[in-house]
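step=encode ok
step=design start
structure_in=
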């Protein structure tokens, strides 16, 4: 029997609502993500509302690979009823059942713990959905993202991908037990 898919369902944390991405979020998110400084470690430049809308159309349509789920959320700050960032999980379904996560918080909302809160909420949800490992690839000089990964329970490894450090969270519920095959 195939493993169940991993949908991008709403997640509530103390201050945030992680809402499944919709194309309609593009205009507000273009403003949230407009600061070129957000691209210091990831490269590229901010998208125009039109380009972000096209990108969101592709993301919402889902992965063309049947073994991969694209789960994308916008982060709504409940107290101010505004969007403040995004978080995503690229989930590999099947035997390996893992997720690669990433996040970005708009500059005006940084240093308030929103990325850490969202990442903890997402990792917790993924763990309840039988995800065996969660990874994030973080530039070695990006101390803020390293702090977010650490807050979500990920630990740095010796692995590198395109110069970025692989941070990993093993789901304790899926660790092999001595003398047992998993």
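sequence_out=
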């Amino acid at each position: 029997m195939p493993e169940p898919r991993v949908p991008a369902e709403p997640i509530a944390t103390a201050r945030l609502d992680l809402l499944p991405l919709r194309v309609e979020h593009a205009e507000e998110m273009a403003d949230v993500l407009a600061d070129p400084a957000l691209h210091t470690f990831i490269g590229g430049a901010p998208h125009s509302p039109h380009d972000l809308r096209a990108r969101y159309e592709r993301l919402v349509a889902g992965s063309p690979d049947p073994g991969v789920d694209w789960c994308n959320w916008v982060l709504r700050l409940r107290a101010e009823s505004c969007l403040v960032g995004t978080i995503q999980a690229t989930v590999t379904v099947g035997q390996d059942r893992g997720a690669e996560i990433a996040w970005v918080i708009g500059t005006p909302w940084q240093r308030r713990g929103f990325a850490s809160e969202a990442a903890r909420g997402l990792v917790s949800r993924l763990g309840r959905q039988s995800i065996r490992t969660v990874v994030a690839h973080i530039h070695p000089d990006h101390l803020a993202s390293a702090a977010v990964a650490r807050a979500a329970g990920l630990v740095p490894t010796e692995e590198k991908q395109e110069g970025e450090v692989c941070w990993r969270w093993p789901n304790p519920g899926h660790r092999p037990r001595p003398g047992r095959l998993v």
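step=design ok
step=annotate ok -> The chain is about 25% helix and 30% strand.
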